[in-house]
Amino acid sequence: MKLAEALILRADYQKRIEQLKSRLLQNIQVQEGDDPYENPKELMKELTDLLSQLQDLVQKINKTNLLTPFNETESLADVLVKRDLIGQERSIYSNLLEQANFRQDRYSRSEIKYVTTINVKENQKHVDELSKKYRLLDMKIQELNWQTDLLEK
Asked: Where are the coiled-coil regions (predicted)?
């Protein structure tokens, strides 16, 4: 199995776990005398099995990321951290720009006037550069994910 396939499977497991959680919550209590639509014990067993499969898969993914070279100096795990931090920085600066661009209507000169304290144009350029850096790095990561075989324990 390729690493990219394992990542897709992980997302599927996580989605199924959330669905099982929801189904459990819907069937955990019923009116006295009624039967639940689904057997909670069976749902709990299915949830436990799925969580075990997810744990095994995540451990294999983590091992693969750690031991797969991305370039001469960094592993795939190192670059994933770098990509996530670039994304976080981009998100923070985007939120700052959104706040800086907020227009507040004033109805008279006596109302308080707010001014932006950052250079919007410079910061927008920085967000654009971060977006490009994130996108290029993510494309290389995705390419490597489809070329890399998932390592077994």
From this structure: 3-64
